[in-house]
Amino acid sequence: MQADPIVIDTSSDDGNPGVNEPQHIDPEGPDGHPSPTDGNESDDDWPDMEHDTDELQPAHSLQVKRAALRRAAFMESSWHNGNELGAGGFGTVFVAYKVDQNLVMRDLVAVKDVYMKRHHCLQWTYWDGDVRDLENRVPIETAIMTALADEAGPGAEKTVFLRCSCPFNLTHSTYRLYMEYCWGSLSDAIGQRVHEMELDPNDLESSQFPEFLLWKWLEDLTEACIVMAEGSLDETAPPKNWRPIVQRDIKPGNILVDAPIPGGDWPDVSTLRLTEFGGSIFTDANDPHNPMSYNFGPGTTGWQPPELTSEAHRLGLTAKGRGKLGPHTNVFQIGAALIAAANYNLAKTGDDFQPRVDQALLDDHNYSQALAKLLHRCVRRDPEKRIKLRELRQRIREHTGEGPEGMRDRGRGARRAATLPENMQVRLSWSVDKTYREGLTPPAEADEALLEQYGL
Fold it and tell me: Is 368's pLDDT higher than 50?
C-alpha cells in the first residue's frame, strides 16, 4: 500500500515559522526550509556533514552523507524528496515535488545541493563579486543562472531557468538552487536507445534518432550558446552590459530534454535545454585571466576542446595555454554532444578527444552530408576554423525549411507542423531508475496534464 507523504508543521511555539527566505522567489517557488541557514549556531538546524549526518544515519561514504543531509533538509519543508538525478564533485541534483491534500502532484522542481570544498570558498573563480566580501559575493553558478533567467532576451529558454536561489552557508560551505524540472538528460536518452539497439541489432532504423530531430536539437544548443555569448538572439536589442558566458562542461549529461516550446518553431518536437553552470565563467577575449585561470579543472575529460586543456594537465609542467576560451569553446562542445547522439557513443576517454565525423555517420546511420559537414565544422581543433554561432544558426535554418526555394528541407516540415505525422513521432524513453519520484505512485485523480507535460 502506498504510504502517505509526511507533512510537518514548521511553526514553533513563539510563532516563528522557521522560514529561511531565498534571495529570490516566484509566486510558485519553494517554501519551508529551502536552504541552510546563515550559519548562526543558535538556530542552525542544517546538519554538519561530518558529524550530525552520522547521527542521523551511520555513513561511511560521501554519497550516503549527502543523501542524509538532503533528507534532513526536507524534514521541515512542504517539498517531498524524490529520486537523485545526478551527482558529481559539485554535490547532488534531485527531484522535489509538492502534493495537495488529495495526493495530487502540483509542482516539480530539480534541486541542486552544492557542497563546496573549503579552499574554493577563497578561490575567486568560484564567485561573482569580490571574493573577500563575504556578505555580497555570490556563487558564480547562481550569478550566471540569474543572468540567463532575468537579464537575457529571446533564446534564453533554451537554458534551464533558476526558480530561486538560497544564500551561501559559510559554516558548512553549501548552497542550494531550485531549478526547472525537465524530462531527462540527453545522455540517458542516448543510453536507452543504445540499450534498445542491443536488444535488436537488426532494427537500427527505429532505434536511431531521426535526422530532423538532430537538426532541431543542434538549433536548440546553438541558440543557447548565442544567448550565452550575446545575451539574446535579437541582435538589435542585446541586454545592456551583458557578460559573455563560457559553460566549459557541455556534454550529453548536462543537456536536458524537455517539452516543445509553445508559440515558436518546431511546435511538436522536443527541446534541448542547457544546464549545469557550476563550472561556467564570465569571460571574453579582453579578460587578462583568459585562458590561464580557466583552462584546468572544470570540464569532463573527453569533451574538452584543446583550449580547455593545458600542457600541465598531461606533462606536469608549467601550464601552457592553447588559446583563449570563448563562444568557439561552446561550439566545440555542442558539436561533440550531437556527434555522440548520432553515433550512440558516450564512452569518450582520453585528453583532447577529437570527435569523429566519418563515413560511418553517413553510411551506417544514413545521415546527410549537410548535417555531417556542419558537425565537423563545430569540432575543428583550431578554434579559428570552427563555424561561428550566427553562421551555424543560419545554416541550420536554411537546411530545415528556411532556405532558398528548391532547397531540400532536412527538417521534413517539422519546423512549421503543429502536429507531426505518426511516422515522424519520436517517443523518447528513460530507464526505470531515472523516474522522478521515490515511493509515490500518482493516484487515479493525478493531474494528467502535469504528468503528460513531463513525459510520465
Answer: yes
Q: Is the pLDDT of residue 440 over 80?
A: no
As a whole number, mean pLDDT of residues 77-105 equals 78
The yes-or-no verdict on residue 103 having pLDDT over 90 is: no
Whole-number pLDDT of residue 83:
78
Residue type for 331, please? V
CATH of domain 184-424: 1.10.510.10
Question: What span, in angstroms and rounded, lies between the C-alpha atoms of 429 and 40?
Answer: 45
Question: Within 13 A of 161's CA, how many CA atoms are on the CB side?
Answer: 16
The strand pairing partners of 184, in sequence order, are 257
Q: Which residue has the higher pLDDT, 315 or 12?
A: 315
Instruction: Retrieve residue 347's grid coordinates.
Output: 564512452
The pLDDT assigned to 16 comes to 32
**Strand stretches in 237-338, DSSP E:** 245-246, 255-258, 271-274, 281-282
Chain segment 195-253, per-residue pLDDT in tens: 776 666 666 566 789 999 999 999 999 999 999 999 999 999 899 999 999 999 999 99
> What does the block give as the cell for 327?
563562444
In the block, residue with C-alpha cell 542544517: 46
Tell me the angle at which helices 327-343 and 389-397 cross, rounded to the nearest 10 degrees: 40
According to the CATH classification, is domain 52-181+436-453 in 3.30.70.270?
no
The pLDDT, as a whole number, for residue 222 is: 99
Q: Which residue has the cell 515535488?
A: 97
Q: What one-character DSSP code corresponds to residue 160?
A: P
114's enclosing H/E stretch is: strand 105-115
Question: C-alpha angle with apex 181: 67 to 221, nearest 5 degrees?
Answer: 115
DSSP 322-378: -S--SHHHHHHHHHHHHHHHHHT-----STT------HHHHHTT---HHHHHHHHHH
The answer to the question of whether 112 is labelled as a binding residue is: yes
**Domain ranges (residues) in the chain:** 52-181+436-453, 184-424
For residue 33, which of 83, 96, 85, 84 has the smallest C-alpha distance?
Answer: 96
User: Do 329 and 281 form a contact (C-beta atoms < 8 A)?
Assistant: no
For the record, the C-alpha cell of 282 comes out as 564570465
CA pair distance 258, 297, nearest whole angstrom: 29
